[in-house]
Amino acid sequence: MHPLSPKTYAPVDLVPFGGVYLRQKAAQAAEEMFAAASVEGVGITALSGYRSYETQVGTYNSWVATYGQEQADVASARPGYSEHQTGLALDIGTGGACDVQVCFKDTDAARWSAAHAHEYGFVLRYPWWQHETTGYWYESWHFRYVGRAEAAAFHSSGAPTLEDFWGFALSSSE
């Protein structure tokens, strides 16, 4: 949970991908990943990509209003802290009832992506039972583009989280 600088950061190289926007390299990699999944008979849908600072204000405030700040802080990034704001985060689904739900982990799309995303430069950001390290509850649908070499090195390392791999400690939100 490290802040962006500036907190209102917006990437300049956003391009459309599957109904969302991603940074250009992430979109190219996602296109290749989705095509490879399709060849293997696995359908994946882009659910969420880039979110502006202003959009994240609304998203986070909705979580706070519904569940309180303590629960919001482990389910939604504060504005200026969201990986979605970087244009490198991609939430995937199938277009079914388990999209953005814990049961998504049991879908072919989740299993395929967990096994192959690193081949395209993506990593699963919020793995099962790693919330004390990542700061967020499990999200089997949330992938972050870090580049092919970095994703392959992370995958090969056996590190449970990107924080462990990069040697980052959690910092408190403001």
From TrEMBL:
Domain D-alanyl-D-alanine carboxypeptidase-like core, first and last residues per copy: 21-147
SUPFAM superfamilies attached to this UniProt entry: Hedgehog/DD-peptidase (SSF55166)
UniProt superkingdom: Bacteria
InterPro entries: DD-CPase-like, VanY-like_core_dom, VanY/YodJ_core_dom, Zn_M74/Hedgehog-like
Transmembrane spans: none
Name of the featured protein: D-alanyl-D-alanine carboxypeptidase-like core domain-containing protein
